[in-house]
Amino acid sequence: MAPAAAHRAALVAGLALALPAAAQEAGARVEVPSGQEVRFIEARRDAGAAAGLTAGITWRFRFVAPAISRVGGTVNLDTAAQDMEHLCNRFALPWLPQGEAVGQIVIELADREVEFGQPAPEATRYFEAFSVQGGRCVWEGF
After folding, report:
1. What's the number of domains the chain is made of?
2. In angstroms, how far is CA 70 from the centroid of its own chain?
3. Which single residue of 1, 47, 51, 60 could bond 106 by disulfide (Cβ 3.0 to 4.6 Å)?
4. Is 31 within the bounds of a domain?
5. In the chain, helix, strand, coil percent, each to 5?
6. Is residue 3 part of a domain?
7. Is-contact 130 104, C-beta < 8 A?
8. 65 near 110, Cβ under 8 Å?
9. Considering the domain boundaries, does residue 64 fall inside one?
């Protein structure tokens, strides 16, 4: 198994108690307020926060949402933003390890699966950043 795949498998296994079994698997559908189809891709833990932006761990949760496509999509940015806040509060927060100093949660929606960290000009992608305050996600914006 490649190192990245092994890390991802260990990460998912280590956090398996945080979510219902169906939501833990890559490709699993996740319910959002708009009703659009959203599928979970992966969660990534970044120990090194971006310089000066956050203190603590940054968690990135990546999802595919075909309806946000700029070509033929039916979900606009405002609706997607509401879904992203929901994903942060209802999906990401329960996933996080207890007691970990989380500085930021980043939610990504893309109209197609895109390799992490790679440019994809043909894809529609939205990112929202949240801090965790009082057990809730608070929008930080980029």
Report:
1. 1
2. 20
3. 60
4. no
5. 30, 25, 45
6. no
7. yes
8. yes
9. yes
Supply 25's token pair.
Answer: 């698997």
> What amino acid occupies position 87?
L
**Token pair belonging to 139:** 């929008």
Residue 73 covered by a domain = yes
Give the CA-trace dihedral at 112, 118, 59, 107, to 10 degrees: -40
CB neighbour class for 56 (10 Å; exposed up to 12, middle 13-18, buried from 19): middle
pLDDT tens across the length of the chain (142 residues) = 444 444 444 344 344 334 444 456 778 899 999 999 999 999 999 876 554 555 689 999 999 999 999 999 999 999 999 999 999 999 999 988 888 888 899 999 999 999 998 999 999 999 999 999 999 999 996 6
Provide the domain limits for residue 40.
Answer: 36-139
Q: Are 58 and 46 in contact (CB under 8 A)?
A: yes
Q: What angle do CA 53, 125, 44 make, to 5 degrees?
A: 55
